Write the structure tokens for this entry.
Amino acid sequence: MDYVNFALGLLEMNTKPRRAAIYVRVSTDKQTVANQLEALAAVAVGRGWEIVATYSDNGISGAKGRRDRPGLDKLLTDAQRGKFNVVMSWAIDRLGRSLIDLLGTIQHLEACGCDLYLDQQAIDTTTPAGKLMFQITGAFAEFERTIIRSRVHAGLERARKAGKVLGRKTGTVLADPGKLEAARAMLAEGTGILKTAKAVGLGTGTVHRLKQSMAAN
């Protein structure tokens, strides 16, 4: 192997200007993304990154999934097409409110060969320290998944011991008691309706009614 040329090749890859995409989001139409765009553009200029695309979701909650956030969906699609190699966002909650959903987005970007820069959390996977932070985030997300599964299984087991019949009866829409138990636990800890419904496998309407019932008691 020609180690000199190999080293020169690595140097060229590391010094080649990065093509950056900016993603911004605000929860209401009354908010503006101007400040986020200005700050991220300044960072890109300071690092010599070329901004090749900007994506935004205005008036859309971070609790929404990819399908309900057209800006994020287009960003992830273009990442697969290799249109850029680093994604910049103002803060971690701009990408998502759920650690699990956030990890899914980051893993998608990593699979596409894209790094991630989050200004407010100083997360930058173009650096070794940033890569380490990504691994820590992944560990916490896996921990969260484990906790949710444990709650669901514990709820099912309590329901069985209590002699409750699990599943749906013919001609009815009966929610699984175990899932309801897990949902109650998550709601009691302050978890949102959408995240709870997705985690335990219930409809958002069912979880909403459950939350109203808990508030009334």
